[in-house]
């Protein structure tokens, strides 16, 4: 599933290529991606027709495009969603679900091109269809549907001290807390494992067993690893995650823990271990990241 760096790469691409354009037509090719819109596919299309896109914003793993009427086009990529900017004559992707014909040109803010030579489309492509789109009424500033989601570590208004205090007050394992979108958003399975590896912390260590220094260091590593991934275009393990131009990211080549089961730890040489975790997998070094006594007993 795309995590914060991947979604931010997509957001930045949308900001560059579609902000300032007007939605001239909407075609819903499959209704499942707009299942959360209360008036269905027809109402979804009608609410967007003729609207000007004012920008591209993000909260955690959610994207939204503020519109000139105060509403917003809200989206989540799910596991395999892609937002692609294509010329209208480009062949339709196999899993194309929704297409938006755009008129006008990017408005020049943030280094956008002043002219676009060929008519464009914004396309929502989703193989597994766990992602979705909807219109958030009055959601241009912040859609009410996602107002409960915490800020992420790359947000300038993220409160480090409040996060550290809340983390250290919880009895759950620290990895579970990193994935709690009400506590901190955008940190998914990949970057949680990487931040924990860098911090030499086992994911099952309870939050209230961390010192303040450990919690601060963990937050710093989470922020660092996501910034590094962002600089490399995100992490792509397959063709399902790409930016708006269809290009993959390269941070998977820099991972120290995630996806490296049985490979030697880059720090101590001990084979990386994979364990089941919340219907997914966790990867850690059993030597560098000592398991708490309770986890060792279960093992």
Fourth CATH level, the homologous superfamily of the largest domain: MutM-like, N-terminal
C-alpha end-to-end distance: 28 Å
Output the CATH class name of the largest domain. Alpha Beta
| E-strand count | 10
Radius of gyration over alpha carbons?
A: 21 Å
CATH architecture of the largest domain: Alpha-Beta Barrel
User: What is the averaged pLDDT score?
Assistant: 88
Helical content, roughly? 10-25%
In the CATH scheme, what's the topology name of the largest domain?
Answer: N-terminal domain of MutM-like DNA repair proteins
Q: Tell me the number of structural domains.
A: 2
The quaternary structure here is single chain
Q: What share of the residues does DSSP label as strand, in percent?
A: 15-25%
Give the count of helical stretches: 7
User: How would you spell out the order of helices and strands?
Assistant: HEHEEEEEEEHHHHEEH
Are there runs of 5+ residues with pLDDT below 50, and where? 108-116, 236-241, 247-251
Category from helices, strands and their pairing: alpha+beta
- Label the overall shape: elongated
Largest sheet: 4 strands, antiparallel
- Order of adjacent strands in the largest pleated sheet: 1-6-7-5
